Amino acid sequence: MASSFTVIPAIDLRQGKVVRLFKGDYERQTDYEVAPAALAASYADTGAEWLHVVDLDGAREGNLANLKTLRELVAAGMKVQAGGGVRSRADVERLFEAGVQRVVLGSLSVREPNTVCEWLATFGPERLTIALDTHFRDGAWRLPSAGWLEAEKATLDELAPFYADAGAKHVLSTDIDRDGTLSGPNLSLYRHLSQRVPKLALQASGGVRELDDIRTAREAGASGIVLGRALLEGRFTLAEALAC
User: Fold this and answer.
1) Which CATH class is domain 6-243?
2) Residue 225 is inside which H or E element, if any?
3) Residues marked as catalytic
4) Would you state the pLDDT for residue 152?
């Protein structure tokens, strides 16, 4: 069990609005009427230390499409980890300049691991979160990229130990098949990862539907959990989640 545990509310952005996708499908989008900045302020007021932000336009197109909105979220006062559309060192630096504490590297972590290792040495392991979002296909945990739209050759079991050996500290892993489904987190995935790379601080994501999912993810070896749709749809409150 992780010795410390962080509950991280999430805001997914598309065209400056709060949305959620079902299993990462851009054609199966739910829009929420709340303004991103107001939602972030409510999370900050409740006591969240961290906020997770995904630029869905950026993830798909390879640019920082929602940077203006991201700056508004940073202003809410929480520490922000953000990703989506990061393709270059200049993008990383732009996010840091916008006030982001940790930059989430997804597609690049899969496509250009040697480049990401250079950035780990340059910026330090506390400033980067390696996102190894995965689904189980053909007998292995595969790692699609570009907003989960493009298949890649690398597998989770190859890259997770690679990054652990390279000095990474924070790894976020979403089971794509459970993301946005409210079907429960994939505990076997997190047990597998925590056993394979025990020195990484693992953030669980995808499928959380009830408070017990937070407890069981921690017991499975995660050191944090990202909460999206369950909070937006009132399955439980952020205060209740933090109290877990």
Assistant:
1) alpha beta
2) strand 224-227
3) 12, 133
4) 78
